[in-house]
């Protein structure tokens, strides 16, 4: 049945109003033009709507399992000591970072499906690596940007009820969170730093991506990577990002890093995804740029967002390390639910 024009326009407006974030208001900068945020070091063109249409028409998706059964990982320690660093991959971009007595979650998603309610149509292909009930007390949540696979409102509400953590996110994000009844957020511009404890600091740093929750709010809030600094060393969390000179800049200004957490999935087709998602080979190059002693892959094997197959990110990363004659533990692909002590090197 063909919808009348007025009905189609009403649906578009509903999408703009219901799902879209309000957006940041503030002074202009080199990455904010007064209305929208900008990538200052993009190395690939934005293919826009017609590029998206071309990809959709000519997709070549790799294989994924309908569902992967896995037992959850062991319950983590409640706290680690000063100077210790333990990371646990929960799934997709969700990582539990335990350092210097603090427990920090990145982009937490425990929902079975993501998307604008009630259209949560992107479903998980595997369960979270940790049960929500097994989480230690969470002190801080870091949100890299507002896409549904990184900012999951139902999970954030559960975390606020259970732990009341502080939340760090890019400019404009906490106003959206407040509209959802989620308090305790702090906005960061790139290069802003803020203490988490007497010894640990979080800094927002540039990356290369975009933001939107709905049809009409493209690039209205800031996307960002984060750096944690404390007695345990420095940890880089990339968020979603394409490859570019920002990695080397962060490495020079804030490195070296004890650990870099870098995305390796949702990268194919590379002609379309490359502006906003690194390939496994580019993630390896980013680890070198950052001067990271070790790196861990994330953003793979949970939600099917692009054309790379379920096992493809890890396989390509392994081949890239072999070709570069690097030891396999320099950049590892974690088992979900695995808690790994990151050694000092």
Helix and strand layout, with pairings?
Blueprint: H1 5-19, H2 48-57, E1 85-91, E2 94-99, E3 102-106, E4 113-114, E5 122-123, E6 140-143, H3 153-163, E7 166-170, H4 173-179, E8 185-188, E9 193-195, E10 201-205, E11 225-230, E12 233-237, H5 246-254, E13 259-263, H6 270-273, H7 280-290, E14 295-298, H8 312-323, E15 331-332, E16 339-341
Parallel strand pairs: 3-6, 6-7, 7-8, 12-13, 13-14, 14-15
Antiparallel strand pairs: 1-2, 1-16, 2-3, 4-5, 9-10, 10-11, 11-12
Helix pairs in contact: 5-7, 7-8
Task: Describe this structure in a few short sentences.
With 345 residues, this protein is an alpha/beta fold. The protein has one domain: 4-Layer Sandwich (Metallo-beta-lactamase, Chain A), CATH 3.60.15.
């Amino acid at each position: 049945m063909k919808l009348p024009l007025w009905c189609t326009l009403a649906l578009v407006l509903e999408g703009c109003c219901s799902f879209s974030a309000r957006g940041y208001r503030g002074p202009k900068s080199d990455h904010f033009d007064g209305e929208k945020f900008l990538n200052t070091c993009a190395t690939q063109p934005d293919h826009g709507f017609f590029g998206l249409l071309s990809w959709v028409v000519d997709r070549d998706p790799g294989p994924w399992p309908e569902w992967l059964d896995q037992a959850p990982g062991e319950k983590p320690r409640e706290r680690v000591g000063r100077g210790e660093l333990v990371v646990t991959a929960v799934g997709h971009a969700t990582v539990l970072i335990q350092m210097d007595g603090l427990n920090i979650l990145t982009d937490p998603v425990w929902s079975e499906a993501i998307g604008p309610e009630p259209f949560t149509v992107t479903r998980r292909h595997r369960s979270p690596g940790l049960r929500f009930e097994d989480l230690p007390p969470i002190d801080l949540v870091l949100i890299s940007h507002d896409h549904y696979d990184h900012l999951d409102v139902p999970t954030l509400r559960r975390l606020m009820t259970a732990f009341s953590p502080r939340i760090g996110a890019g400019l404009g994000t906490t106003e959206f969170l407040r509209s959802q009844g989620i308090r305790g957020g702090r906005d960061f511009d790139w290069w802003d730093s803020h203490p988490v404890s007497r010894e640990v600091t979080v800094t927002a740093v540039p990356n290369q991506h975009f933001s939107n929750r709905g049809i009409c709010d493209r690039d209205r809030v800031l996307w960002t990577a984060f750096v944690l600094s404390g007695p345990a060393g420095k940890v880089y969390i990339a968020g979603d990002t394409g490859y570019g000179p920002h990695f080397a800049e962060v490495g020079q200004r804030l490195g070296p890093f004890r650990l870099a957490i870098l995305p390796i999935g949702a990268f194919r087709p590379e002609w379309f995804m490359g502006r906003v998602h690194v390939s496994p080979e580019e993630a390896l190059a980013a680890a070198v740029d950052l001067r990271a002693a070790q790196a861990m892959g994330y953003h793979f094997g949970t939600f099917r967002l692009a054309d790379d197959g379920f096992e493809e990110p890890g396989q390509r990363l392994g081949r890239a390390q072999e070709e570069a004659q690097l030891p396999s533990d320099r950049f590892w692909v974690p088992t979900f639910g695995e808690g790994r002590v990151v050694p000092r090197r």
